[in-house]
Protein backbone atom coordinates (compact mmCIF):
# COMPACT_ATOMS: atom_id res chain seq x y z
CA UNK A 1 0.00 0.00 0.00
CA UNK A 2 0.93 3.64 -0.16
CA UNK A 3 0.59 4.19 3.59
CA UNK A 4 2.53 2.35 6.29
CA UNK A 5 0.82 1.83 9.65
CA UNK A 6 2.98 0.89 12.62
CA UNK A 7 1.30 -0.60 15.70
CA UNK A 8 2.95 -2.39 18.61
CA UNK A 9 1.81 -5.99 18.93
CA UNK A 10 0.15 -5.20 22.26
CA UNK A 11 -2.49 -2.82 20.87
CA UNK A 12 -6.24 -3.00 20.37
CA UNK A 13 -7.80 -0.77 17.72
CA UNK A 14 -11.24 0.80 17.99
CA UNK A 15 -13.94 1.06 15.34
CA UNK A 16 -13.21 3.71 12.70
CA UNK A 17 -9.67 4.29 13.99
CA UNK A 18 -7.92 4.19 10.62
CA UNK A 19 -9.93 6.60 8.47
CA UNK A 20 -9.08 9.72 10.53
CA UNK A 21 -5.37 8.85 10.24
CA UNK A 22 -5.46 8.54 6.46
CA UNK A 23 -7.07 11.90 5.66
CA UNK A 24 -4.16 14.18 6.70
CA UNK A 25 -1.70 11.94 4.84
CA UNK A 26 -3.83 12.17 1.69
CA UNK A 27 -3.85 15.98 2.04
CA UNK A 28 -0.04 16.18 2.52
CA UNK A 29 2.12 13.08 2.09
CA UNK A 30 4.75 14.54 4.46
CA UNK A 31 2.31 14.38 7.35
CA UNK A 32 2.93 11.68 9.96
CA UNK A 33 -0.05 10.92 12.17
CA UNK A 34 -0.60 9.23 15.53
CA UNK A 35 -3.80 8.17 17.27
CA UNK A 36 -4.63 9.08 20.83
CA UNK A 37 -3.15 6.19 22.80
CA UNK A 38 -5.58 4.83 25.37
CA UNK A 39 -4.45 2.63 28.26
CA UNK A 40 -5.04 -1.10 28.57
CA UNK A 41 -4.10 -2.44 32.01
CA UNK A 42 -1.34 -5.06 31.82
CA UNK A 43 -2.89 -6.81 34.85
CA UNK A 44 -6.61 -6.80 34.08
CA UNK A 45 -6.83 -5.79 30.40
CA UNK A 46 -9.24 -3.03 31.43
CA UNK A 47 -9.49 -0.35 28.74
CA UNK A 48 -9.35 3.32 29.85
CA UNK A 49 -9.53 6.48 27.77
CA UNK A 50 -6.54 8.77 27.91
CA UNK A 51 -6.63 12.55 27.93
CA UNK A 52 -5.60 14.21 24.69
CA UNK A 53 -1.85 14.70 25.07
CA UNK A 54 1.08 15.24 22.78
CA UNK A 55 4.64 14.00 22.82
CA UNK A 56 7.50 15.90 24.32
CA UNK A 57 10.94 15.17 25.73
CA UNK A 58 13.17 16.23 28.57
CA UNK A 59 16.82 17.32 28.65
CA UNK A 60 17.87 13.67 29.03
CA UNK A 61 16.22 13.01 25.65
CA UNK A 62 13.55 10.81 27.20
CA UNK A 63 10.06 10.86 25.74
CA UNK A 64 7.25 12.25 27.90
CA UNK A 65 3.60 13.17 27.52
CA UNK A 66 2.54 16.83 27.73
CA UNK A 67 -0.98 18.12 28.17
CA UNK A 68 -2.33 20.12 25.24
CA UNK A 69 -3.14 23.70 26.29
CA UNK A 70 -6.89 24.39 26.27
CA UNK A 71 -6.31 27.33 23.91
CA UNK A 72 -5.23 24.86 21.21
CA UNK A 73 -8.42 22.84 21.66
CA UNK A 74 -10.73 25.86 21.27
CA UNK A 75 -10.37 26.42 17.50
CA UNK A 76 -13.17 26.07 14.93
CA UNK A 77 -12.87 22.27 14.88
CA UNK A 78 -12.82 22.09 18.67
CA UNK A 79 -11.51 18.94 20.31
CA UNK A 80 -11.51 17.00 17.01
CA UNK A 81 -8.83 19.13 15.31
CA UNK A 82 -5.43 17.54 14.63
CA UNK A 83 -2.82 18.59 17.20
CA UNK A 84 0.75 19.43 16.25
CA UNK A 85 3.13 17.33 18.32
CA UNK A 86 6.90 17.79 18.72
CA UNK A 87 7.43 14.03 19.13
CA UNK A 88 5.57 10.74 19.08
CA UNK A 89 5.57 7.64 21.25
CA UNK A 90 6.88 5.69 18.26
CA UNK A 91 4.94 2.44 18.34
CA UNK A 92 1.69 3.73 16.85
CA UNK A 93 1.78 5.90 13.74
CA UNK A 94 0.99 6.07 10.04
CA UNK A 95 2.88 7.71 7.20
CA UNK A 96 3.30 7.71 3.45
CA UNK A 97 5.52 4.80 2.35
CA UNK A 98 7.60 6.91 -0.06
CA UNK A 99 8.11 9.63 2.56
CA UNK A 100 9.30 6.99 5.07
CA UNK A 101 11.85 5.81 2.49
CA UNK A 102 12.89 9.40 1.62
CA UNK A 103 13.54 10.07 5.31
CA UNK A 104 15.82 7.02 5.45
CA UNK A 105 13.44 4.73 7.34
CA UNK A 106 14.53 3.94 10.91
CA UNK A 107 18.09 4.84 11.94
CA UNK A 108 19.98 1.55 11.66
CA UNK A 109 22.46 2.78 14.29
CA UNK A 110 19.83 2.55 17.01
CA UNK A 111 19.86 -0.54 19.22
CA UNK A 112 16.75 -2.59 20.11
CA UNK A 113 14.64 -0.06 22.06
CA UNK A 114 14.57 3.55 23.20
CA UNK A 115 15.08 6.89 21.52
CA UNK A 116 14.13 5.81 18.00
CA UNK A 117 10.81 7.62 18.40
CA UNK A 118 12.53 10.93 19.17
CA UNK A 119 15.05 10.47 16.38
CA UNK A 120 12.41 9.89 13.71
CA UNK A 121 10.28 12.72 15.17
CA UNK A 122 13.20 15.17 14.87
CA UNK A 123 13.87 13.95 11.34
CA UNK A 124 10.24 14.46 10.32
CA UNK A 125 10.27 18.07 11.51
CA UNK A 126 13.73 18.93 10.21
CA UNK A 127 13.12 17.40 6.79
CA UNK A 128 9.93 19.27 5.89
CA UNK A 129 7.29 17.06 7.48
CA UNK A 130 4.78 17.55 10.22
CA UNK A 131 3.66 15.31 13.07
CA UNK A 132 0.05 15.29 14.25
CA UNK A 133 -2.01 13.60 16.95
CA UNK A 134 -5.49 12.79 15.59
CA UNK A 135 -8.08 12.92 18.41
CA UNK A 136 -10.73 11.08 16.34
CA UNK A 137 -8.46 8.02 16.15
CA UNK A 138 -8.03 6.05 19.37
CA UNK A 139 -5.98 2.90 19.86
CA UNK A 140 -5.55 1.01 23.13
CA UNK A 141 -2.03 0.04 24.22
CA UNK A 142 -0.86 -2.23 27.02
CA UNK A 143 1.71 -0.27 29.02
CA UNK A 144 4.01 -2.70 30.77
CA UNK A 145 5.40 -1.98 34.21
CA UNK A 146 8.92 -2.83 33.09
CA UNK A 147 10.83 -3.62 29.98
CA UNK A 148 10.00 -7.24 29.08
CA UNK A 149 13.35 -8.08 27.47
CA UNK A 150 17.03 -7.46 27.93
CA UNK A 151 19.77 -6.46 25.53
CA UNK A 152 22.94 -8.21 24.41
CA UNK A 153 25.59 -7.94 27.08
CA UNK A 154 23.27 -5.98 29.37
CA UNK A 155 23.92 -2.75 27.41
CA UNK A 156 21.76 0.27 28.29
CA UNK A 157 20.21 0.71 24.85
CA UNK A 158 18.25 3.77 25.96
CA UNK A 159 21.47 5.58 26.89
CA UNK A 160 23.21 4.39 23.69
CA UNK A 161 20.31 5.54 21.52
CA UNK A 162 19.93 8.88 23.32
CA UNK A 163 23.65 9.59 22.82
CA UNK A 164 23.35 8.65 19.15
CA UNK A 165 20.36 10.96 18.80
CA UNK A 166 22.33 13.85 20.32
CA UNK A 167 25.38 13.21 18.14
CA UNK A 168 23.42 12.79 14.88
CA UNK A 169 21.25 15.87 15.36
TrEMBL record:
Residues 1-100 form the Glycosyltransferase 2-like domain. GO terms for molecular function: Notch binding; polypeptide N-acetylgalactosaminyltransferase activity. GO terms for biological process: protein O-linked glycosylation; regulation of Notch signaling pathway. GO terms for cellular component: Golgi apparatus. Keywords: Disulfide bond, Transferase. The keyword Disulfide bond applies. It comes from the Eukaryota. This is GLT11 acetylgalactosaminyltransferase.
